[in-house]
Amino acid sequence: MGLLTFSLNLTLDGCVDHREGIVDDETRAYFTRLMDESGAMLWGRVTYEMMESYWPAVARGDEEAPPDMREWAVKLETKPKYVVSSTRKDFPWTNSHHIAGDLREGVQKLKDATPAGVLLGSGKLATELDRLDLIDEYKLLVHPRIAGHGPTLHEGGLPCTRQLELLSAEPLHNGAVAMHYRRAR
């Protein structure tokens, strides 16, 4: 069984608005490495649609992008992508699959079938999966910014405090810190 790893950019005050993070070669390399290490991506519908609106065009060469972004897009094109949605059924982007029905059962089956692990990159979905006790690790890139607005991580709350064990903390040259935690069980 593979691990379900939640990874996201966030500011010091917990803002997960993707426009608030630092986007540079180092942060792109960090997320490329995470994607390379995982067997599949897992997103909610909103994140999928945001990604689908841009990255396939970059992979095809229809959008101008630096070489490292194009490399990311090409890798993302071939990576299996799983989407949780109760409102959309059709996911035409290459290698995209719908997880429907019981969330716990669907995500557990995905973990069981993906020995290299699943990389979760959606904040709202992470809250739901955390409530179901399905997230095994957290790889958060904490940016040296205070946004002063939301959305924030786990806005809807969790039923209880999650205890985590720090596995590593790696400062980047841009001031962000890559934090790797495992659920203490």
From TrEMBL:
<feature type="domain" description="Bacterial bifunctional deaminase-reductase C-terminal">
    <location>
        <begin position="5"/>
        <end position="177"/>
    </location>
</feature>
<dbReference type="InterPro" id="IPR024072">
    <property type="entry name" value="DHFR-like_dom_sf"/>
</dbReference>
<protein>
    <submittedName>
        <fullName>Deaminase</fullName>
    </submittedName>
</protein>
<dbReference type="InterPro" id="IPR050765">
    <property type="entry name" value="Riboflavin_Biosynth_HTPR"/>
</dbReference>
<dbReference type="InterPro" id="IPR002734">
    <property type="entry name" value="RibDG_C"/>
</dbReference>
<dbReference type="Pfam" id="PF01872">
    <property type="entry name" value="RibD_C"/>
</dbReference>
